[in-house]
Every structure is written in structure tokens, then in C-alpha cells.
Write a structure and sequence with these properties.
Blueprint: H1 2-41, H2 46-82, H3 85-91, H4 96-144, E1 150-151, E2 157-167, E3 170-180, E4 188-201, E5 204-218, E6 221-238, H5 258-265, H6 270-303, H7 308-335, H8 341-365, H9 372-389, H10 393-413, H11 419-457, H12 462-498, H13 501-507, H14 512-515, H15 517-535, H16 537-553, E7 567-572, E8 577-587, E9 592-602, E10 608-620, E11 627-641, E12 644-657, H17 681-692, H18 699-727, H19 734-760, H20 766-786
Antiparallel strand pairs: 1-2, 2-3, 3-4, 4-5, 5-6, 7-8, 8-9, 9-10, 10-11, 11-12
Helix pairs in contact: 1-2, 1-4, 1-19, 2-4, 2-6, 2-7, 4-6, 5-6, 6-7, 6-8, 7-8, 7-11, 11-12, 11-15, 12-15, 12-16, 12-18, 12-19, 15-18, 17-18, 18-19, 18-20, 19-20
Length: 790
């Protein structure tokens, strides 16, 4: 019995461990890019980065541990049932109770880990992660500043830097433009050749400016103008504060310890008590899912003889979806006070436990040959056949004759696809559909859990939440497609290798290169579909889901036009100078400015050569050439020498005037703020060109531009890379293929994220940063395929 116990547990635990690794990796994929960006920028120490990685895992484990238990039991027992090992064990006198006792050992151990994670580890990790991120915000701020972009989020300051560097762990800014807007009507403008940035406190940066000058004007008397030159000076800058919550949060529930949550759940305030009581029970209910999932999975796995591992995966998806639908409905009713918290939160566990006991009762009374699941499937199939056969028998017969004729015709006149291609494609697409549905279900559940607090806090309608989830599905499919194709190819050919089907094909003279053609064709089609969707449907879907997410989060709807962006870097003039525009208001419909300031800066010395102010300005398109007409203002020119601005060369006022150097048209100031995911390739390319000439940082956008071409192609590259790993594994089942897929996926996303981060900070050219991961993995896959015995 001990040997049998170890055999069953090894089968269940191995699949559960792989499921846990795979599910956790799918969730963790979202944070890989940010973490690697910290590594490349060297803005956080390696121990802190490792700490971030480990602190994000417990939150994912709250969902993935019960799912892994369910997957391990279903796939493990389904595999034993499909090979008739369950039948043999039961024929030798081993009853259902023995299977329950053996599998429950694993479920109880998983329950212990889940309880420790949900009640202790996850809350402490959430609190520690928030504390770590708060401490890193100030230390990262100097390194987060990108060259050639205006930062208007600092308190009372606007910052512009032409170049950045690092030295001895400190951030170095070169050619610094700093505007103090304590008095918005009279900004104090400071230009410096260089600045060393230090962290004075958690909320303040100390900017040590070197070799520069400060300009200050009296708004009521523009003739009074002060220039202060300096060799060195300091300027404290307050960091942007975290975004305030739109609704008063009761408390950071995820960061509270279980004992604190218990005390708050028994507070005298009714609404708060109900809220915290619901959250308290939510700590425990998902942990018990390890047991109730086991109760349901044992009879279903034992009776699932036909589906094998694929049948177990399908059942996992269906059961997880059903459980969390019931669970979330119960939580919603509990938070609204319609049912007690204990009833609402525990309803899914209660229902699944009752179903599990009923299925165990049926399995214990069933015969050795017919399980409850198979008998139900057979009855359903028979009923469906009876419904279809009588009224449509002649149509089915005609369709059958057509299929036989078309099959014979294809056999003699076409070389692709053949019968063997149909067989491989059916297997591959079946596994692909299962994997995509499983990953998509996992991502949707985890996304819903993340938004659950905002949904109830902001009283968001269910139709809004449903619309958001529907619109976020295309983006999730786009992100998951390469990993899903990789896993589907590995599982498909691993199963065929395990069953000696590939050996039989090679024995009949069919080359491995011919066998992989249909899979590569489908992978290429998927890659093309990803590119076309990114050019047509996906940008609009991303805009919709972003707007709906803002609504759920309680944020104001984001407008396309940034009316609050009041600092813009102009185009280069013929004299080698640049204009920096600052204004209080711009009317994009009438093309009019209010309180316009223009700073003309020398491109070589980075010194102010002229400053212009106008109370009003409007664009005259009828003039030859068209230009801006400024009213009620003044102009002041400066003489420069020895690297310092030290004298006023000219000053005059005007009622109406125009300047040839102000040659930017009105459309130049109507900048749109978009995400790269909300534009197709052509739109993003034009957007980059438009922003670049205005002095905005576009390095990240250029990397994303080339990734719009490179990312869909990685789907085909993943298929090429997966083939040699699956074919060269002798007699090893799909389990090894799944483990290999996880390893390859981890390596790819780490490499891809690392190169993206290096491209974002200009360590690599954008094209190389986007395409190099594809090139590396394509060469590796091509080399390994050539080494495969055909």
C-alpha cells in the first residue's frame, strides 16, 4: 500500500507543482518589465529587486495554490484512469475511500501552505512591499527623469534635462532647465550646465546645480529684471505625492494582519464591521478550496477515462470558473448586506463540498467500468444523437457523401494538407484551445480580484465590469499568444513522441521536417493575426478598456488632449536656437494663448538669449507667411559671454508685434497623449515624429514601435524553438513538455524585458532592443531543429 500511495501522490504532486509554477508565472509576467527596468537603470539595489520579486508571489499564491491542487488531482487521476490503472486498482480491492485517503494527504498539506500564505505571509508581504516601494520611490526619482522631456509633476517646479548620466551611484543631469512656479505669473527660471541629484529625504530631492544663472522678473513692472549667476547652488524639489484615493478607503485590507482584521470585523460601526467581516472570511474561504476541490476532483478524475490529461485540464477550467463565479457573487451579496458574511463568502465552498460528497457517493456505488462522468457523457451524447438523426437524416447522409467525394478528390490532387496534417492540426489546435482558455480564465479571475475593492467602493454597475472584462480579453490574448503556442507545440509533439507516433511516421519515410509543417503554418497564421489585430481592432479595444478601468477605479475620464501641458519645447531655428513655450491657457479651437512666455535658448551654450512675454497671442493664417501675433507684451535680449548670462542687451515693450522665430503652427501645441498600445504602427510612427520635434522623450515609444513588428513574430519563433525540445525527449510524456515550456517562457520574458529596459534608457538602439530577443531565440531554434534526427 505504501508503494501505491507514493505512486499516486507522485502523479498528483508532479502535475500540481507544474501547474503552480505555470499559473504563478502567467500572473507574474505583468511585473517582469518593471522589475527589469529597475535593474537596467541601477536605481534600486539588487537585494531590493529580489525582495520585490519574492514579495509579489504570495498574492498570486492565494489564487494559484487551490488551482494547482485541482489541476494536479484531476490530471493525475485522469491519466491513471485513461491507462486503466484505476480500474486495475479497484479490481484488486482498493476502494474509493483509499483514493480519498491518499489524495487528501496532499490536499491537507496544500491546505496548510495556503492557510499560512493567506493568513500570515500574504498580508505581511503586501505591507512590506508597500513600504519598500515607498522607500524606493524617492531613490528612483533621479534615475526616472528622462532627457528632453518636461516634468510638470514636481510640486511648484517644472524640470527639463537635455542629458542624464550616473556617477558613483548618483544621478547626473546635464543642461538643466528648472522653473520655480511658486508664483505662476512670474516663474523663476534657472539654467545650469550640470546638476548632481541627491536624496535628501523620502519626499525631497536635493538638486546641486553647477555653473548657471537664475532669471526673475516682476510681473507688475517688467522693467525690473534680475539675473543671478552662480557657480554652485542647491535647490530642494518635493517629489510628486502618490495619487490620492478618490473614495475614503476603510483601511489597506490586504496589509492588515488577520488579528487586526478580526478586531475591525467586530467594531461597533455597522458598515465597517460588515466590510471587514467579509474581508476576514475571505482570508479563510479560498484556503478551504484546496479541500473542496479535492472532494470534487477525486471522483471526476477517477471516472474520466476518455479525456486523459486533456480532459483533466478542461475540467479544471470549468470548475475554477464555476467556483469563482459563485464565490464572487457571494462576496458581492455579503458586502451589500443582503446575506451574512459567513454565508456569502463560504457559499462556493459549501456548494462544492456538497457536490463533492455526492460525486464520491456515486463513484463508490458505480461499477469498475463505468464512472459517473463517462456515463453522464454517454447519456448526453446519445440524447443529442437522437435529437439530430431523425429530422436531419437526409442532410447528414448528403453531407457524408460530399465529404467522402471531397476527401477522395483531395487525396489524389493535393499534397497539403493530407490526412496526417489533419491529425496533427486537430491535436495541436485542441491543446492550444485548452491552454488559451485556461490561461485566459486565470487572468480574468486575478484581474477581477484586483478590482473587487474598487468595484464595491465606487459602486460600479455589473454591466460596466462585464464590459471591461470583455474589452480586456483581446489584450490578454495578444500577450499570452506566444506562451500558449510554445506550450501547445511542446505538449502536442511530446504526446506523439510518448506514444511512438513520431517513430511510426519516420518508419514510413515521413521526415520530421514534413511533420512540423502544419504546426509552423498555424503559428505563422497566428503571428499574422496578432499583427493585423494590433493594426485594426486592438488599439480601439485598449482605449475602451482603459476608459472603463478608470471608471471602475473612480478616476476621471482621460481626455486625448492634454490641456494642462503648458510647457513645450519648440523647433530649432535657423540661428541654432530653440524656443521654450510656457503659457497659462491655450484655446485649441480659436488658436489663442493667454499669458505666453517664450524663452529663446542657445543650442550650444544652453543660455537664454531672449525672453518674450505677451498677455495675448493669436495665429493669423491670412498673413504671408502665417505667424503668431502677440499683444500687450515685452521682449528682452541678453548678451552672453564667458559661459554666463551677465547683461541685458535690449528691452522694449509692444502693443502688437510678431516674431519670425515663433514659427510653430497651432497644431504643434495640440499634442495628444496616447499609449503605444492604443495606436497601430502607422499612428505610433507619426505620433513619435510629432512628439520628438517638441522636445518630448520618445525612446520608449520607439522601442514599442519596433515591438509592434517583433512581438507577433515571436509566436512563430516559439513554435520553432519548442519543436526540438519536444521531439528529442524519448518516451517522456507531456509533463516534461510543460516544464520545458515554463523554463523557456521564463527565459524569453526575462531576455525580452531586459532588452526593452535597455532600449528605454538608450543603452541599446530601439530596433536592436525590440528585435534582438526574436533573433536570439530564432537562431537557437533553427540550430536545434537542424540537429534533430529526421
Amino acid at each position: 500500500m505504501r508503494i501505491l500511495t507514493r505512486y499516486i501522490l507522485r502523479e498528483v504532486v508532479s502535475h500540481a507543482a507544474l501547474g503552480l509554477a505555470l499559473f504563478t508565472f502567467v500572473i507574474f509576467m505583468r511585473d517582469v518589465g518593471h522589475i527589469l527596468d529597475l535593474v537596467v537603470r541601477n536605481s534600486a539595489p539588487v537585494p531590493s529587486i529580489a525582495e520585490i520579486i519574492f514579495l509579489t508571489l504570495p498574492t498570486a499564491f492565494t489564487v494559484t495554490i487551490p488551482m494547482a491542487v485541482l489541476l494536479g488531482i484531476l490530471i493525475g487521476l485522469s491519466r491513471l484512469a485513461s491507462d486503466s490503472e484505476i480500474t486495475a486498482m479497484r479490481a484488486s480491492g482498493i476502494g474509493v475511500a483509499s483514493f480519498v485517503r491518499i489524495v487528501m494527504l496532499f490536499a491537507v498539506v496544500a491546505l496548510g501552505f495556503s492557510i499560512y500564505n493567506n493568513l500570515s505571509l500574504a498580508p505581511r508581504s503586501a505591507a512590506a512591499l508597500e513600504k519598500l516601494q515607498a522607500s524606493l520611490r524617492s531613490s528612483q526619482a533621479p534615475f526616472e527623469v528622462q532627457p528632453r522631456v518636461f516634468y510638470e509633476d514636481f510640486k511648484n517646479y517644472v524640470l527639463y534635462v537635455q542629458d542624464t548620466a550616473t556617477s558613483g551611484g548618483d544621478a547626473i543631469w546635464k543642461n538643466v532647465f528648472l522653473a520655480d512656479l511658486t508664483d505662476p505669473q512670474a516663474p523663476k527660471v534657472t539654467l545650469a550646465k550640470e546638476a548632481v541629484v541627491l536624496n535628501e529625504s523620502q519626499d525631497t530631492l536635493r538638486v546641486h546645480l553647477i555653473d548657471g544663472a537664475q532669471h526673475q522678473v516682476e510681473p507688475r513692472n517688467p522693467r525690473q529684471y534680475q539675473i543671478t549667476s552662480f557657480n554652485q547652488t542647491d535647490a530642494p524639489i518635493s517629489l510628486p505625492q502618490a495619487e490620492p484615493r478618490t473614495a475614503p478607503e476603510l483601511a489597506p485590507v490586504s496589509q492588515l494582519s488577520t488579528s487586526q482584521l478580526w478586531k475591525l470585523a467586530h467594531s461597533p460601526e455597522g458598515f465597517k464591521a460588515r466590510w471587514y467581516s467579509t474581508e476576514f472570511h475571505r482570508r479563510f474561504a479560498p484556503t478551504l478550496a484546496c479541500i473542496v476541490f479535492a472532494l470534487v476532483a477525486i471522483p471526476l478524475g477517477m471516472s474520466s477515462k476518455r479525456g486523459g490529461k486533456s480532459g483533466g485540464f478542461v475540467l479544471t477550467i470549468a470548475l475554477v470558473f464555476a467556483y469563482y463565479v459563485i464565490y464572487l457573487i457571494g462576496v458581492a451579496l455579503a458586502r451589500q448586506g443582503k446575506v451574512p458574511a459567513v454565508v456569502g463568502v463560504w457559499s462556493a465552498d459549501i456548494i462544492f463540498a456538497l457536490c463533492g460528497f455526492w460525486l464520491l457517493y456515486r463513484a463508490n456505488r458505480s461499477s469498475l467500468e463505468g464512472g459517473s462522468l463517462d456515463s453522464l457523457a454517454e447519456r448526453s451524447k446519445a440524447w443529442w444523437t437522437r435529437q439530430k438523426e431523425h429530422p436531419r437524416a437526409h442532410l447528414l447522409e448528403r453531407r457524408g457523401r460530399f465529404e467522402r467525394r471531397s476527401g477522395r478528390h483531395r487525396r489524389y490532387t493535393s499534397k497539403f494538407p493530407q490526412i496526417i496534417d489533419d491529425y496533427i492540426l486537430r491535436s495541436f489546435t485542441g491543446f492550444l484551445a485548452l491552454i488559451v482558455s485556461g490561461f485566459l480564465t486565470l487572468m480574468l479571475i486575478f484581474t477581477f480580484f484586483e478590482l473587487l475593492g474598487d468595484i464595491f467602493r465606487n459602486k460600479v454597475a455589473f454591466i460596466t465590469v462585464a464590459a471591461y472584462l470583455v474589452n480586456v480579453i483581446p489584450y490578454m490574448l495578444y500577450q499570452l499568444a506566444p506562451l500558449c503556442v510554445l506550450l501547445a507545440v511542446l505538449v502536442t509533439f511530446s504526446v506523439m513522441q510518448h506514444s511512438n507516433e513520431l517513430t511510426a511516421m519516420k518508419a514510413t519515410g515521413i521526415s520530421i521536417y514534413r511533420v512540423i509543417v502544419p504546426v509552423l503554418a498555424i503559428a505563422a497564421i497566428i503571428a499574422g493575426a496578432l499583427f493585423l489585430s494590433d493594426q485594426s481592432y486592438l488599439p480601439a479595444a485598449n482605449r475602451r478598456q482603459e476608459a472603463l478601468r478608470n471608471q471602475i477605479k473612480g478616476k476621471p475620464a482621460q481626455t486625448v488632449l492634454r490641456a494642462d501641458h503648458r510647457w513645450i519645447f519648440g523647433q530649432e531655428n535657423k540661428t541654432g536656437t530653440y524656443n521654450v513655450y510656457y503659457y497659462d491657457f491655450f484655446d485649441p479651437d480659436r488658436d489663442q494663448f493667454a499669458n505666453l512666455n517664450v524663452f529663446e535658448i542657445d543650442g550650444k551654450s544652453f543660455e537664454i538669449k531672449r525672453r518674450i512675454f505677451a498677455a495675448r497671442a493669436h495665429y493669423e493664417a491670412a498673413m504671408k507667411p502665417p505667424m503668431w501675433v502677440l499683444e500687450d507684451g515685452w521682449s528682452r535680449s541678453f548678451s552672453t559671454g564667458n559661459g554666463q548670462e551677465n547683461a541685458i542687451a535690449d528691452f522694449h515693450t509692444f502693443n502688437v508685434s510678431s516674431f519670425e522665430e515663433l514659427r510653430e503652427p497651432p497644431g504643434y501645441f495640440k499634442k495628444e497623449v496616447k499609449q503605444s498600445s492604443e495606436m497601430n504602427f502607422g499612428e505610433l510612427r507619426r505620433y513619435i515624429a510629432d512628439l520628438q520635434q517638441s522636445g518630448f522623450e520618445v525612446m520608449k515609444l520607439r522601442v514599442q514601435l519596433y515591438r509592434k513588428l517583433a512581438y507577433p513574430l515571436i509566436t512563430l519563433v516559439m513554435a520553432v524553438l519548442a519543436i526540438p525540445f519536444s521531439i528529442t525527449r524519448k518516451r517522456q510524456a507531456a509533463l516534461t513538455g510543460v516544464a520545458t515550456a515554463v523554463g523557456i517562457g521564463v527565459i524569453y520574458f526575462l531576455v525580452s524585458g531586459l532588452f526593452d529596459a535597455m532600449g528605454n534608457v538608450n543603452y541599446l538602439p530601439p530596433m536592436l532592443a525590440a528585435w534582438f530577443p526574436d533573433l536570439i531565440f530564432a537562431l537557437a531554434g533553427g540550430y536545434l531543429i537542424l540537429k534533430v534526427p529526421t
